[in-house]
Specification:
Blueprint (H helix, E strand, L loop, with lengths): L10 H12 L13 E7 L2 E4 L2 H9 L5 E3 L2 E4 L12 E4 L1 H27 L2
Antiparallel strand pairs: 1-2, 1-3, 4-5
The structure holds zinc ion (ZN).
Length: 119
């Protein structure tokens, strides 16, 4: 969680659990389940493991991690905690969501600053 001070006090105890429950503890983009164990097959691809695969990972020295879902702000504004603006996402989908927004912001900012100079 970046910019922790911009999150409301009830974020951890109320909002985050509410959104995880509403979204059935699954990433709303790729459906990966909260707290599932697995490994990253590549930087961007998480493979969920059942007990047999976990055993296989152990035998092959593949690092298994537990995936924790995050709550994404669709408009990228951490102060907008309207439930319609929040979605459960895995770390990978969260980054993709935020990257799309930063790209858009980069495209808009130069135009805004140019407009301000002309005022
Ligand atoms: Zn995802």
């Amino acid at each position: 969680m970046k910019n922790r001070d911009r999150y409301p006090i009830e974020w951890t105890d109320v909002i985050r659990p509410d959104i995880l429950k509403r979204d059935n503890y699954k990433c709303t983009k790729c459906n990966v389940v909260h707290r599932s164990s697995g490994y990253y097959a590549s930087k961007n691809s998480f493979v969920t493991c059942d007990e047999f695969m976990l055993d296989w990972c152990k035998r092959n020295n593949i690092k298994v991690v537990k995936l924790f879902l995050q709550i994404a702000h669709l408009d990228n504004d951490p102060s907008n905690n309207d439930y319609s603006n929040l979605k459960a996402m895995c770390p990978r989908c969260h980054i993709i969501n935020d990257m799309a927004f930063s790209k858009l912001k980069r495209m808009c900012v130069p135009r805004i600053s140019t407009d301000l100079k002309s005022l």
